[in-house]
Every structure is written in structure tokens, then in C-alpha cells.
UniProtKB/TrEMBL annotation, chain A:
Keyword flag Nucleotide-binding: no
Protein name: Fumarate hydratase
Family stated for the protein in its record: Belongs to the class-I fumarase family.
Pfam family, one: Fumerase
Domain Fe-S hydro-lyase tartrate dehydratase alpha-type catalytic: 34-302
InterPro entries named in the record: Class-I_Fumarase/Tartrate_DH (IPR051208), Fe-S_hydro-lyase_TtdA-typ_cat (IPR004646)
Taxonomy, superkingdom: Bacteria
Keyword list, A-Z: 4Fe-4S, Iron, Iron-sulfur, Lyase, Metal-binding
Species, as recorded: Actinomycetospora straminea
From TrEMBL, chain B:
InterPro entries in alphabetical order: Fe-S_hydro-lyase_TtdB-typ_cat (IPR004647), Fe-S_hydroAse_TtdB_cat_sf (IPR036660)
UniProt feature, compositional bias: Polar residues: 1-14
Gene3D superfamilies, per the entry: Fe-S hydro-lyase, tartrate dehydratase beta-type, catalytic domain
Protein species of origin: Actinomycetospora straminea
TM annotation in the entry: none
Record key words, sorted: Lyase
Residues covered by the Fe-S hydro-lyase tartrate dehydratase beta-type catalytic domain: 12-194
UniProt keyword Ribosomal protein present: no
Keyword Lyase tagged: yes
Region listing for Disordered, in residue ranges: 1-26
Protein's name in the database: Fe-S-containing hydro-lyase
Length: 304, 204
């Protein structure tokens, strides 16, 4: 059989794999595993700087003395965790990976999925992070190493890979919700649903929360969009779409108006950021997913 | 119990002045529990027992089967926590509270048997609150997301039951100046209800 990939096998670059230059780039899966390992430790030990800034801004606008005390403690906690190399929240969560993979990328040296899991297992061991996953909702035996990673793959143009790790606690994920609204319910119905979700979550989502909202698509697409919306950086940066940015500002006000406050003890700040993502949907549909993230916001994005 | 007004906070406009925290020795006695009021800030020192979802399921199964519990709940304070693994030389890893409502189905079983305090985060059901008032148990809210700070208040930790549950095993902890707020007192106070009600406003 004709060997179509002799140069690729030789590891030389650039290589021709289809008779003309295609710019296929090889990425060893070990590099992916090592990146995931590093990000798991970093995300759990160091609250991202822009999120610390978001909490500081929350502290400035918080009027309740208890709320101020809670925010002071959260900021102090972030310092101690980074210094002592200890997780800033004991629920070191699900390891959610978003991968945007350039279509000209070829992963080498084994299974990509296995490499992601290996990275999680090694990172959680190295960072003294809690293994929090069980085999299934029925067989609740701990998997022992916090695997499997919860992975979302997107194929995009180019030869790069964008990898985002979101460490997601269960307390706030449990309080998330999805509803298939009607077009008639409209944006007002959507806002009511978001506020209802926040009210029902109350202290359990560990406010001040980051709110990820996915609107449109299908039932499943909305949920993934909502989760991905949480990873926007920096925390609280507005959507580039003007009408969505306006909606985000209105929702911040409506959520803060609930008075739930830091840790749910009452106060003027219940959310540090609302990130809304929208996608085309059906003429008969208005799916809305609301994914909540606690104040222990653990997100890292890198490009490979 | 002692406490004095904090001058800097007392002068904050539109605020209820915060009392400085009250230091409390564990195990809790009935008089102390009766004096506590929703919203009080406390620093707890002494022994705690830990337990969360899987341990509570086993407590209930033991009670069902007429077996002894791995600890006598009478007078104890139970902390809903599943810590991260301890680094060498440390008694415990990150150790913040988990959502208490997941234990609601089981908590009355322990409260009826004399449990005097619970520490967690999030609201409790009406049934749990009724049992607490009836039997003299108070619910403290610790601040979730301060797990690194709280771990520094733990001076020792040992597994006393269900070691196979790992992070969910029942531990005996010794804590020093562990900060918490009284959420549900014996007099109908509920900080998760009353706090937000005070700050609720109309959207702009």
C-alpha cells in the first residue's frame, strides 16, 4: 500500500500529506495532558486576577455589613489559597474541558480523550484536590481520580487548539435550570425565568454568582452555550453584541434587586457578572439555559 | 458570651451595626444555644463531627436497622463538609461547608437524638427547622468558598467511621476560632429569609 504520509511519520515540518502543502500540524497528546494537569492545579489554587478584581468591585458596591464581611473573607481566602497552595474551595468539582480544535490539527501519540483524563487525574493528585465524581447516579462509587473530564469538542478552521478548563462545583451546577420558552414569552419571559432561577438557588449557589445564559439553538445547544458563557474573560466584560450587552446589564440589576447578597445572608450584590450567548433557533422556540457559577470561579484558557 | 459594637461598622449608613463575634466553646450547652440569635457572628472552638450525603444515608440505615450510630449525636455539632486531601504535615485540606439541604431528609433523625448544632450552607426545610426548635438545635452558616481560611481553623482531624467513603468519611475535628453565622435560632429567626428581605428592592 502506498504510504501517503511519509513526511508526517518522519516528524518533519512542514509536511505534505495530500500531495500539496496543507499545513497539517501535529500536536502530541502528551502536551495536551500536561497542559490539563497544570491548569487543574492552577485553577483550583489561584483565583483568576480579573475575578479577584470583580470581587473587589463587588466589595465596593456592597452596602450590607454582613455582605462586606463575606466579601472580605472571600478575598482573604484567595490570598491564603494561592500562598499555601491549597484549593480555595473544597468542592474541586467537575473538570469541564472546552476544546476548539483547528481542522488542520492532527493529535499524535495516543487517544486525545485518554490524555485529557490523564491530565485531570495527575493534576488532581498533584494539587491535593478532591476526587468528587462517582461512576453513575446509580452506582455512586467514587471514580477515585476525578475522571472522566466533561469534554466539549468544536471543530474550527486553522491549525490551533484553544483549550478552556472550567472547574465546576456541584453546589451551583445543581441550582442551574433550562426552560423551553415560547417566542411569545419573549425577552421578558426569559428575564423572569433567570430571576426565578436565582431566587430558587438563593444561598445554595454561593453568591455572588457568575451567571451564564445560553439562549437559542436546541435544548442541548442552549445548555452548552450557557456553560461556555461562564468562561468569558475577563469576568463581567460585556457581550460584543449591543442588544445582548444591554440585556446583561438589565439582568445584573434584576438579580441584585433580589437582595440575596453575598453568601445569601442579604445584601446589594448577588451577581458579579451575567454573560449571555445567543444562537439561531427555531421559529417555534426560545430555549433558555441558566448555568450558575459560585464565587469560586475557576476558569483557565490557553492556546496550544 | 461577650460582644461589643464595632464603631467603624456602626457608623455605616443604612446598616445594622455588626457585633464583634462571640467566642463559643464546643460542645454547645443548652443555655448557649438558647441565647444565640439569627445573624450573630460566632467563633467556635472545640470538637466537631463531619458528615455529608453518603454518611447520612448510612446513619439512616443504621437507625433503621436498630444499630448504634458511629457517634452519639447528643450534644454534638455536625459539620457538613467533604475536605480535599491534606498535604503532608497538615491536619486537613480545604474544608468549606457544603449545601445542607441535601441532608434535610435525614437531619431530623439526628436532631431528635440530641444533636445541638449543624454547620453548612443554604436553607433548611420547614421540617428540619421545626425539629430544631423542638429539640434545641441551632443551624450555623459557614461561608462557602472560604475553604482555605477555614482549614486553618482545624487543629486536628481523625476518621471515626466509614473510612471507605474517603472525603465523605465521618471525621472528628478539633477547631479553633472557626467563624460562622447563626442562621436558624430557636426563636424563629432565619438569616437566609430575613437578610435578603431587608435588602430586596424593585429593579431599576
Amino acid at each position: 500500500m502506498l504510504d501517503a504520509y511519509p513526511l508526517a511519520r518522519s516528524g518533519m515540518r512542514p509536511r505534505r500529506v495530500c500531495g500539496k502543502p496543507c499545513g497539517v500540524r501535529e500536536i502530541p497528546v502528551d502536551e495536551v495532558a500536561d497542559t490539563v494537569r497544570r491548569l487543574c492545579v492552577e485553577a483550583n489554587h489561584e483565583l483568576r486576577g480579573d475575578h479577584v478584581d470583580a470581587l473587589r468591585r463587588a466589595r465596593e458596591r456592597e452596602e450590607s455589613p454582613i455582605g462586606q464581611e463575606v466579601l472580605d473573607r472571600l478575598l482573604a481566602n484567595a490570598e491564603v489559597s494561592a500562598r499555601e497552595r491549597i484549593a480555595f474551595c473544597q468542592d474541586t468539582g467537575y473538570a469541564v474541558c472546552f476544546l476548539e480544535i483547528g481542522q488542520d490539527v492532527h493529535f499524535t501519540g495516543g487517544s486525545l480523550a485518554a490524555a485529557l483524563d490523564r491530565g485531570v487525574a495527575e493534576g488532581y493528585r498533584e494539587g491535593y484536590l478532591r476526587a468528587s465524581l462517582v461512576r453513575s447516579p446509580v452506582d455512586r462509587t467514587n471514580t477515585g481520580d476525578n475522571t472522566p473530564a466533561m469534554v466539549h469538542y468544536d471543530l474550527v478552521e486553522g491549525s490551533g487548539v484553544r483549550l478552556t478548563l472550567l472547574v465546576k462545583g456541584a453546589g451551583c451546577d445543581n441550582m442551574s435550570a433550562l426552560r423551553m420558552l415560547t417566542p411569545a414569552a419573549g425577552v421578558e419571559g426569559m428575564k423572569r425565568f433567570v430571576v426565578e432561577t436565582i431566587e430558587a438557588a438563593g444561598p445554595s449557589a454561593s453568591p455572588p454568582v457568575t451567571v451564564g445564559i445560553g439562549m437559542g439553538g436546541t435544548f442541548d445547544r442552549a445548555a452548552v452555550l450557557a456553560k461556555k458563557a461562564l468562561t468569558r474573560e475577563p469576568t463581567g466584560s460585556p457581550s460584543p453584541v449591543p442588544e445582548l450587552a444591554e440585556l446583561e446589564a438589565e439582568l445584573v440589576d434584576a438579580i441584585d434587586a433580589t437582595g440575596i447578597g453575598p453568601a445569601g445572608f442579604g445584601g446589594t450584590v448577588t451577581t458579579v457578572a451575567v454573560h449571555v450567548e445567543a444562537y439561531p433557533t427555531h421559529i417555534a422556540a426560545f430555549p433558555v439555559a441558566v448555568n450558575l457559577d459560585c464565587h469560586s470561579h475557576r476558569v483557565r484558557t490557553v492556546t496550544l | 458570651m461577650t460582644g461589643s459594637r464595632d464603631a467603624s461598622l456602626a457608623s455605616t449608613p443604612a446598616s445594622k451595626a455588626r457585633k464583634s463575634p462571640t467566642s463559643i466553646r464546643l460542645p454547645l450547652d443548652a443555655d448557649t444555644v438558647r441565647e444565640l440569635r439569627s445573624g450573630d457572628s460566632v467563633l467556635l472552638s472545640g470538637p466537631l463531627v463531619t458528615g455529608r450525603d453518603a454518611a447520612h444515608a448510612r446513619f439512616a440505615a443504621a437507625i433503621d436497622a436498630g444499630e448504634d450510630l458511629p457517634f452519639d449525636p447528643a450534644g454534638e455539632t455536625l459539620y457538613f463538609v467533604g475536605p480535599t486531601p491534606a498535604r503532608p504535615g497538615h491536619p486537613i485540606g480545604a474544608a468549606g461547608p457544603t449545601t445542607a439541604s441535601r441532608m434535610d431528609a435525614w437531619s431530623p433523625l439526628l436532631v431528635e437524638r440530641g444533636l445541638r448544632g449543624m454547620i453548612g450552607k443554604g436553607r433548611r426545610s420547614d421540617a428540619v427547622q421545626d425539629a430544631m426548635r423542638e429539640h434545641g438545635c441551632v443551624y450555623f452558616g459557614a461561608i462557602e468558598g472560604t475553604a482555605a481560611l477555614l482549614s486553618q481553623c482545624v487543629t486536628s482531624s481523625e476518621v471515626i467511621a466509614y473510612a471507605d467513603l474517603g472525603a465523605e468519611a465521618v471525621h472528628r475535628l478539633e477547631v479553633r476560632d472557626f467563624p460562622a453565622l447563626v442562621v436558624n435560632d430557636l426563636h424563629g429567626g432565619d438569616l437566609y429569609r430575613d437578610g435578603p428581605a431587608r435588602w430586596r428592592r424593585a429593579p431599576r
